[in-house]
Structure formats: structure tokens, C-alpha cells
Amino acid sequence: MKKTPFLTLEKAKEIAAQYPTPFHIYDEAGIRANARALKAAFAWNPGFREYFAVKATPNPYILKILQEEGCGCDCSSYTELLMAEAVGSVGHDIMFSSNVTPYEDMKKAYDLGAYINLDDATHVEFLERVTGGNLPETVCLRYNPGGSFSLGNTIMDMPRDAKYGMTEDQMAGAINRLMALGTKHFGIHAFLASNTTNNGYYPELASQLFRLAVRLRNATGCHFSFINLSGGVGVDYRPEQPASNIALIGDGVRQQYEKILTPEGMGDIAIYTELGRFMLAPYGHLISTVLHQKHIYREYVGLDACASNLMRPAMYGAYHHITVLGKEDAILDHVYDVTGGLCENNDKFAIERSLPEIEIGDIVAIHDTGAHGFSMGYNYNGKLRSAEILLKEDGTFQLIRRAETPADYFATFDCTEFKFGN
Ligand SMILES: *Cc1c(COP(=O)(O)O)cnc(C)c1O
């Protein structure tokens, strides 16, 4: 499907007059409509809840919007927990899905009353230490089935190579130990394939986790209160890709639920999700201005944004669609490499991409940067993180994170010994 930016050239110019490019911008209306579609898709499950994966877009203004739509926060580190706390998430509004967890992080999650998702069976003893033996009533366990994860004839991922989760036997052992320590209810969590737009992913994962829950219930006698399907539902980064159909996905999970859990008397289990990308990616653009062009063995367009604003193309060779604002309908009769200014040749947002003729000063929208965009940013080459802006439902805009300044970059040095200009 043709990818259309959610803001016009006029709007981009209006915003850039106040907050210079590059900046990330988020579409409140799109975020809310999508969150409601997810909720509707799982409305058949009374306990359903999405815990937004904070790492995807760690901004309290975004978390607030999702909170208003009924979402909780999925955190995996101390600072993510602090951010959830700052927007008023407490107790079971927070899912703590971490791995290689430091003591202070676990302690903070416990003190907040978060659902704690244990990555390993040895973390039962760790949790005992952290809590002084006063364990939470409900504990979640992360599952790793090993082998490969397939949909039909397609191998989607290789859980046996993944560092996360524990084996079924280890889960049974952990449950028995936790029950002896007083834990009454359990959750199961697994994340077995990333960014998949195959609508069969969640239903297949659900089917595996539901069957696992039945087996573990039979083996231990424990009570499961939720199953957390985690993240992984993908988005259509490429225009020719189909988008995930969340209504179909929700219904596919319902069918497995009614087939596997309901007949076992386990129809009280709540379904949780921990989506990041699906919730935010399409509702963010990185807006950037063309600074330079050069003509060597290829045609290059150089932007004021670079990989430190959006790492995915450099890191994964990921495709991000690019629209030249104001030239939405122009023919794509030029071929460019679109680059940032890092001293790294992988700092390319697009390689040999067909685009309309580009001039210096043009403003481009790089699509689908709302998740794992700003958040993966870094300061290599002394590049500074950009601002984040919210395009509100009424068409006005709000700065929700200012751009870094040189002073931020130097802030961790001893400024009594060194004096930095700005
Ligand atoms: C990254 C992550 C998510 C979110 O993944 P998406 O691909 O953004 O949906 C959810 N849960 C855990 C534990 C994660 O690490």
C-alpha cells in the first residue's frame, strides 16, 4: 500500500520554524486509534491488557497517551521502571520483563508491586533474596521451547539460540519452589519471533503457550492467571508488504483459547501483550532536511539526521520508507543513497532508492520510526539526540522532549577541570 506521511510539508515547515530538524514526530490520533483496535481485537477476553514495551518509545508523554487507552508499561530496566512510576503506573500496571537483572532493578520492580517475569529458574532464589522471602502473590515465568519456531513450512526464528527464558522442566521446578514459598498465581511469557506481519504468529504462539499451561497445571497443580504473548507483531515497513491485521490476530488467539484452555477449566486466564513496534512504529516519522548532494560513483543526498537518530538501517539493513514532503505524487525517476553524516559508511537511510528529484533544503519524512527509533539513539561522533514532538489530535504540536545541546553531551565530565564552549 502507498505510504502516506501523517503530516504535510506546510505542517513540517511550521514546526521546523520553531524546532529545527531533525526531529521525531508522533501522531497522537494514529496511536489512539491503533490502541483501540488492539483492545477491540481482544475484547473477547475480559482480562486482556496491553503492556506497552517502554524500550520502544521511552517518553512519558507517549506512555500517558497509552495509559489513557488502558495500557500498562512493560519495563526491563531500572530507569524504565522510574519512567513508568513517573506517569503513575503502579502495581500490576507494570510488567517487569528483564534478563540478566541487576539486584536494584529487581528490588525496584518488587517495591512498585510490578508483575515480575523471571527469565530463569535460578531467579527464584534471586527473588527470594531480593524480597527477603516475602514473594509476590503472582509470578510470571519466561519460556524458551528450544528448537526452531515455525509457521507452516517457514522457520520464523531459532529459540534454541536465544538467551531468554527457561525450559519446561525448569518451569515446573520453579513453580513448585515458588508455591512452597507462597506464590499463588502464575503467568507464562514467551517472545519467539520478532517483527512478524504473518497473522498466524500470535495464534501459533498462543497455542503453544496454552498447551504448556495445561501441562504445567497438570504437573504442579498451580493456578495460571495470565498468559503474556509479549511483543513481535510486526508492521509493514515496505509499501508492498501487507500490514498485520490485528482483528484477525485477536480472533486467531480466541480460537486457540476456546479449543485448548476453556475445555480444561482454564477459561479465567487473562491474555496480556507487550507490544512495542505494533503500537508505535507507524505513528512516528523522523523529519530531516537535505543539507548536501554529491555526485560521485552514485548520487548521494545528505541529511541533517544520521544513524544516531535512527539506527535500524545501519544496524539491521532495515528498510524505512522515505517521502520527500511536497513531492508525494512526483514520479520516482531518480536513484539516490540517502545518508547521514557519521564517519561510518553504514550511515545510510536508503541505498539505491528510487525517489523524486531532490533539491537541497527539501524536507523528508522517514517512515515508521515511532518505535525502536529515537530510543536506539546514541552520541557517536558527538552527534546529539534530536527533539521529539507530538502532533496532537487537534492538529497542534507539542515539544515532548527537547533536543540535546552540547552541554548535555559534556554533562558527565568534571566541568570544574575542563571548560567546554557551546
Ligand atoms: C522488545 C520487547 C518487546 C517489544 O517487542 P516489539 O517487537 O517492539 O513488539 C516486548 N517484550 C520484551 C520482553 C521485549 O524485549
Secondary structure layout:
Layout: H1 9-18, E1 23-27, H2 28-41, E2 49-53, H3 60-68, E3 72-75, H4 78-86, E4 94-97, H5 103-112, E5 115-118, H6 123-131, E6 138-142, E7 149-151, E8 154-157, H7 168-180, E9 185-189, H8 201-220, E10 223-228, H9 246-261, E11 270-273, H10 277-280, E12 284-295, E13 299-303, H11 312-316, E14 322-324, E15 334-339, E16 348-355, E17 363-366, E18 387-391, E19 397-401, H12 406-410
Parallel strand pairs: 1-18, 2-3, 2-11, 3-4, 4-5, 5-6, 6-9, 9-10, 10-11, 13-15
Antiparallel strand pairs: 1-12, 7-8, 12-13, 12-17, 14-17, 15-16, 18-19
Bound molecules: pyridoxal-5'-phosphate.
How would you describe the overall organization of this protein?
The structure is a single chain. This protein has 422 residues and is α/β, with parallel strands linked by helices. It has two domains: 254 residues, Alanine racemase (TIM Barrel, Alpha-Beta Barrel); 129 residues, Lyase, Ornithine Decarboxylase, Chain A, domain 1. The chain contains twelve helices and 19 strands. Strands 1, 12, 13, 14, 15, 16, 17, 18 and 19 form a nine-stranded mixed beta sheet that branches. An eight-stranded parallel beta barrel has the order 2-3-4-5-6-9-10-11, surrounded by five helices. β2, α3 and β3 form a beta-alpha-beta unit. α5 packs across α6, α7 crosses α8 and α8 packs parallel to α9. The longest helix is centred in the middle third of the chain and has 20 residues. The protein is globular and about 70 Å long. It starts with 8 loop residues before the first helix and ends in a 12-residue tail after the last helix. The mean pLDDT is 97. Bound molecules: pyridoxal-5'-phosphate (PLP). The site of pyridoxal-5'-phosphate has 17 residues, from α10.
